[in-house]
Design a protein that fits this description.
This protein folds into 2 domains: 94 residues, no CATH class; 366 residues, Pectate Lyase C-like. The chain is 4% helix and 44% strand. The two termini are 41 Å apart. The N terminus and C terminus are likely disordered.
């Protein structure tokens, strides 16, 4: 891979470089570097993905490239970087019909694990290719138990892979780990899949997968790059590149826990991270692009659950859709920590909290008609060492607590798009808020004690005098000509003009 670095100044020395990734209709540029791959074809082969092989001396040194990026962060603002993924080698159009298969989940769940899986075994392979084809008509069997996976490790077994090529078609997971004490370690490897339910790494039933120096591509629906399944699974991924092309295919699907470090990804028709319920994800030094729904979509598919958590550190999320927020929450109670993080949106919306969820179709926000257990989302977000631009939006009684700490800045407003919604906003003495519209909040706190770190630009800030007692019900002048005014209760709401919204 090659780098083309342009130096510049930055408010935060830890600001993430502008890493490049582009697919059609996306903002950044990803292009193939021929030097990154050396591909062999069998002398008797046809031009199909199943005949592609890596030579043992030519697997891409992803770790070296991504590690070098960290060294740039303290001095560099802009950089163009050549990134590859397996679709640069194996043309997805060869498998378009395969990836167009829509899985059928309107079938009975299977509660017994398929037989034939070794218990407490061990397995290791290096410099090998695994080709797998064959569609499973029973999607639950393929997804929940991994019976259609290229490599299925379960029942307390352990497996180690390095320099392997896992190529799968017709709908199958690449590497599948199931049950407690089941562990897969995979390094410096290449995973390509087509067809539905073709996750790259899939940890389920308390299984665990450790992956590093990976290149992962999935072309089919419901085929996330790194996935967890119920009961909770754990994925630990570092120094890797991921590209998921279809609907329902996130970079990370969290049922359990995800830890990612130095991951660059594109999810063309899905969020970067999907959460269902009380799950946790931590992303450090990652640069990820999402093309549908939101940068993250965190929800409970049944009754509302609490305990979901997301931590982003030195990470950049980009959302390309004109109605996509960076962070979306529905029917869940969650905590989020953003440190030295960039959220870049085409919509101008940072956060949405909604009375909603995601359906099995994975391409729209559902209503009460889809799930009558819905409740408003409640999310607390702490922001540190970050400069963020965009709005906070709530629906139908949802709630956002927005806390700016440690030299953070925010330019934006908070409003309800439908029905009443509630906001608490906290600022410490090192942070600043630049208002972009009149705003109503419930509890307003400011450790500066004067509100001089709120630049009003002529707009007014209304606070609930009942809960913001420290302001003693006073009307206070703000920098920029606006006023902070008390209101006894929030019978009104500030609503964005009717040119917008998606749900």
């Amino acid at each position: 891979m090659s780098t083309d670095v342009e130096e510049g100044s930055s408010h935060h020395t830890k600001q993430l470089c502008g890493l490049g990734v582009k697919y059609e209709n996306m903002e950044y540029i990803m292009r193939r570097s021929d030097a990154s791959f050396s591909v062999k074809r069998s002398s008797e082969s046809h031009e199909t993905a199943s005949n592609l092989r890596f030579s043992s001396s030519s697997l891409p040194a992803i770790h070296d490239v991504l590690s070098s990026l960290i060294l740039l962060w303290t001095t560099v603002v802009l950089a163009s970087i050549t990134i590859d993924d397996p679709s640069d080698v194996t043309d997805p159009s060869l498998w378009a019909a395969d990836s167009a298969i829509i899985p059928n989940y309107d079938i009975a769940m299977i509660f017994v694990q398929p037989s034939g899986i070794t218990q407490e075994g061990s397995f290791s392979r290096s410099y090998m290719t695994f080709d797998k084809s064959g569609y499973s008509a029973n999607s639950n069997e393929a997804s929940f138990w991994g019976s259609n996976a290229a490599i299925n490790v379960a029942k307390g077994s352990n497996a180690v892979f390095d320099h392997v090529n896992v190529t799968i078609h017709n709908g199958a997971a690449g590497l599948y780990s199931y049950e407690s004490n089941t562990v897969i370690n995979v390094t410096t490897s290449w995973l390509y899949s087509s067809g539905p339910v073709s996750h790259g790494l899939y940890a389920s039933g308390n299984g665990t997968i450790y992956g590093s120096n990976l290149q992962v591509y999935s072309g089919g629906q419901r085929s996330s790059s790194f996935s967890g399944g119920s009961p909770a699974g754990s994925d630990y991924v570092k120094d890797s590149v991921a590209h998921a092309a279809s609907i329902g295919s996130a970079t990370f699907y969290v049922l359990g826990s995800i830890y990612a470090r130095n991951v660059i990804s594109v999810s063309e028709k899905d969020p970067v991270v999907f959460f269902d319920g009380a799950q946790s994800a931590t992303l450090v030094h990652c640069d990820c692009t999402a093309g549908l729904l939101g940068g993250i979509a965190m929800f409970s598919s049944q009754a509302r659950l609490s305990g979901a958590s997301l931590n982003l550190t030195n990470t950049k999320f980009t959302t390309t859709g004109l109605t996509m927020p960076a962070l979306w929450f529905g029917n869940v109670i969650a905590d989020v920590a953003l440190k030295s993080t960039q959220l870049k949106t085409a919509s101008g919306v940072l956060v949405v909290a909604n009375f909603s969820q995601i359906t099995q179709d994975f391409d729209y926000y559902a209503s009460y008609l889809d799930n009558n257990n819905l409740q408003p989302a409640e999310v607390s977000i702490s922001v540190s060492e970050s400069d963020l631009v965009g709005d906070l939006v709530v629906y139908n009684g949802s709630y956002i607590r927005w806390s700016l700490e440690d030299f953070s800045t925010w330019s934006g407003t908070a409003y309800s798009s439908y029905g009443k919604g509630f906001f608490d906003i906290d600022l410490d003495s090192t942070s600043n808020w630049t208002m972009t519209a009149n705003t109503i909040v419930q509890n307003l706190t400011d450790t500066m004690g004067t509100l001089n770190n709120i630049q009003s630009r002529g707009y007014n800030l209304y606070f609930n005098s009942t809960v913001s007692k420290w302001l003693r019900g006073k009307t206070i002048g703000l920098p920029g000509g606006g006023m902070a005014r008390p209101i006894p209760y929030t019978s009104g709401r500030v609503q964005r003009p009717a040119q917008f919204w998606m749900v």
